[in-house]
Amino acid sequence: MCTQTTELMTWYDKERPKDRNIRHPADGEAWKYFDSLFPNFANNARNVRLGPASDGFNYFRTMSVAHSTWPVILINYNLPPWMSMKPKYFMLPLLVPCLTFPGNDIDIYLQPLVDELQDLWEFGLEIYDAFRQESFNMQVALMWIVRDFPAYFMLSGWKTKGRFACPSCNYDTCSQYLKHSRMTCYMGHRKFLKMDHP
Questions:
Q1: Which residues are CB-neighbours of 10 under 8 A, at least 6 positions away?
Q2: Which of 26, 38, 138, 156 could crosslink 12 through cysteines, CB 3.0-4.6 Å?
Q3: What is the pLDDT of residues 42-74, one digit of tens each?
Q4: Residue 164: how many CB atoms within 10 A of its CB?
């Protein structure tokens, strides 16, 4: 099992179809752009690309109980698409228990994970490849974060409420503060693709 899994970790380097369809993040522009920025990392297909995902849930199944849990899951994007989203290949490095919404306090829980990922990016780790039967220095890159909009506030630090709630538009967000209800509304804030967009 271990030898088969290590062989599949480099599938995208040789078996990926060369058409323009996106079947996996390896076919996307972000992956190719990352490879152009860090060619030494990209030259070794055994280097691991991870994507963390997080969202809170109430395991008592009721919104009246003020307790939530925030699992942080690492997804290995080196695996083929039919394997990378299977639960048995997810890594659960962190489980954040909260009596309330964690907000900025989630940084305290995430700090050890961030430190370890930085070490794996900068220095790597000596690993044994069971398929090739050799040791090599494996590096790890964090490609992107999977989360919903409320979790965007906690995991990236971008404020998702108020005048500049749209992360794409920033200062160009069309917002208006309603003084009687003390809320911000986005009445005219609709963004469309250009008419000639493919």
A1: 45, 46, 78
A2: 26
A3: 998 889 999 888 877 777 666 555 677 888 889
A4: 16
